[in-house]
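I hope you will forgive my troubling you with a question about protein structure. Could you please explain, in whatever detail you think fit, how the structure tokens follow from the sequence? Thank you for your consideration; the sequence and its tokens are set out here.
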Amino acid sequence: MRTHTETQVLDTVIVGGGAAGLSAALVLGRARRSVAVIDYGAPRNAPAAHMHGFLSRDGMAPGELLIVGRSELQTYGVQFTQDDVVDISWRGIEPGFVVELSGGTTLTARTVLVATGLRDSLPEIPGIQELWGQSVLHCPYCHAYEISDQPIGVLGGDVREMSLHQALLLRQWSSDVTFFPHHISLSPDERARLAARGVTVADGQVSGLIRERGELRAVELDSGQLVPRSALFLAPRFIPNDTHLTHLGCKTGSTGFVTVDPSGATSVPGIWGAGNVVDPRAQVIGAAAAGSTAAIAINGYLVEQDVESALRSTQSGGALYGI
């Protein structure tokens, strides 16, 4: 098994040890590349008891997936460190990048993959933060099946289109869906579409959530009305954890996320992004696939570097000896 030191030049440093980062590390480790994964240890889906939609892993606890993944990486000599990356800088010369950790370690790498995910900006309504990931949810495909046929609420939020889409979508799992526009002013056409779908509208601002034994019991309106609900869906604002990417000069798109090509390559040579840090729509299985795709592209990039280096070495040697 290979080991890495602070002075060793690594082929790749992966920042973020979720599904995308670990999947990439697995592929690169099997390609016999020297790889270090740095993870802060605060996964976005930690509040959720289970994850779904991941073939062969449906219903697994998110933390268990990470434990199994890290164990598999040990077979291929991948280094895993729980620490925070405070800076990534470009050396201006080969081998490329310097990665500084909060614990004082400095790593040098030829390439970097950033898989630091995103964070959810939640409405400041009492009870939402406390129930987040349990009975206050955001992804119907991840959580709606488990609350089928129960009273479901949908909260209108900053992401207007997604809020309305959620209300229409969740009708597939329950005949009792109530949309709380909150700060959204609905047009007559929008009200007609909701009514046609069988979704009830509860006008008025939401003032709080009524909880009992850690579970949602009702949504409270500013009028004092209580609307019994077993779960509340909302569309949070997604904020990418992309400080390292933008600091390196990676271009962002109109959505505010860093743009990448189909392989995950950013606009900066040698830097890749995978998972929710560049794709807010990616579920766990999609993030894992993106990590694998990026790893294959990174290995191809490194192969090209290796070939160019060998050619330069051969040519300089030939010139030296007059060949």
User: Anything to note?
Assistant: Residues 1-6 have pLDDT under 50 and may be disordered. The chain is about 30% helix and 25% strand.
